[in-house]
Amino acid sequence: MTNLTFKALVTGAMLGLGATAAQAAECIAPANPGGGWDFTCRQIGKIMHDIGAVDKPVQVTNMAGAGGGLAFTHVVSERGEDADLIVAASSATSTRLAQNAYAGMTADQVRFVGAIGADPGVIVVGKDSPYQSLNDLVDAIRAEPGKLAFAGGSATGGFDHLKPLMILQRAGINDVRAIKYIGVDGGADAITQTVGGFTAAMSGDMSEIVGFLKSGDVRALAVLTEERVPGFDDIPTAKEQGIDVVAVNWRGLYIPKDVSDETFNMWAERLQKVADSDEWAEAMAANGLAPFTKVGGDFQSYVDDVVAEIRTLSKEIGVIQ
C-alpha cells in the first residue's frame, strides 16, 4: 500500500469529526471494530476522558491489516513524531515483532507505554488427569519429552504454543523441538482435545476455560500471572510452583519512537490514572481481564525481554531462521 493510500485512509476516517475533535488525541486500533485492539482504544480512551486525564474525547481510528503490521508500519514511517498518537497493542504485537511478521519492522521502532490488563495464560488438564500440579506435568515430560502433547488455539509458533515451551525451558528442559504441540481452531477445540485424552494438557487463556472450569471438565494446573487471579484464587501461579514464567495476553499501548521523554511520561501517567480508576476495574470485570499493570520504563523492559525470548524460542522450533 502506498503512502498516498495510507493518507487517504486516515483522512477518510477523520472526515466529519469537526475542528474540535481533530485536535484531540488519536488511538489507532490495528483491526476492525469489535476485537481486542478496538476494545483497548475505546475503553482506555473513554476512561481517560471520563476521569479527566485528557481534555477531549480520544478519537479512534481502525486500521486493520497484516495482523497489526499495517498500523505499525504507518506509525513508524509517517507518524514518528506525533505526540498525540497512541496505538493499541497486545501480546500478539510482541510475538509478531519477535517473529519478523511485520516485514522487517522491529520492536525498538516504537515506544511501549504500558499494559493495564490481561487475559491470563493457563495450563489445564482434563478432570481425570493424573497430573495434580504443574511440576507433575513437567516431570512427566522431562522423563519422556516426546510422549506427551499440548493442545492450543494458535498455530505452531503462536503464543499458545510458546507458553508451554517457556515453562519447560525455565524448568531446565532444553530440547523444545521434542515437545509435541497440536494447534487447533480456537481454545474450545483445544480443550476438547485435552478432555478427550488426545493431549496431556491445554495451553490457552483464562477467558477460554472459565465455562469448562465451572462444569468440572478441566482442572487448571497453573495461571501464568504474577499473582493469583481474583475470582480464581484456588489456581496457583507457575511462579509459586517454582517456575518463573509470566505469559499473559496483555492489553496496552505504544507510541511513536521519536516523541520526547516528556511525552512518553505524559502518556504513562495518563495510562496509570486509568489503571488506578474504578472505571477500569469495572471494565476489566465486565470483560474477563485480570490486573496486569506495567507502565513506563518497566513495561518497555518487559516487552524487550519477551521479544528476545520469543525470538529465541521461535528459532529453536524453526518458525524463523
Account of the protein in words:
By secondary structure, this protein is α/β, with parallel strands linked by helices. The protein has 2 domains: 3-118 and 249-316, D-Maltodextrin-Binding Protein, domain 2 (3-Layer(aba) Sandwich); 120-241, D-Maltodextrin-Binding Protein, domain 2 (3-Layer(aba) Sandwich), CATH 3.40.190.10. The chain has 12 helices and 10 strands. The protein has helices spanning 3-14, 18-22, 36-50, 69-78, 91-98, 134-143, 159-170, 187-195, 206-215, 261-275, 278-287, 297-316, and strands spanning 26-29, 59-62, 85-90, 110-126, 149-152, 180-183, 201-205, 218-223, 248-256, 294-295. Strand 1 (26-29), helix 3 (36-50) and strand 2 form a beta-alpha-beta unit. Helix 5 (91-98) packs across helix 12 (297-316). 47% of the residues are buried.
Please write the string of helix (H) and strand (E) elements. Answer: HHEHEHEHEHEHEHEHEEHHEH
What name does CATH use for the topology of the largest domain?
D-Maltodextrin-Binding Protein, domain 2
The CATH class name of the largest domain reads Alpha Beta
CATH superfamily of the largest domain: Bordetella uptake gene, domain 1
What amount of the residues lies in strands?
15-25%
Could you name the ranges where pLDDT drops below 50 across 5 or more consecutive residues?
2-22
Main pleated-sheet profile: 10 strands, mixed
**CATH architecture label name of the largest domain:** 3-Layer(aba) Sandwich
Averaged pLDDT: 90
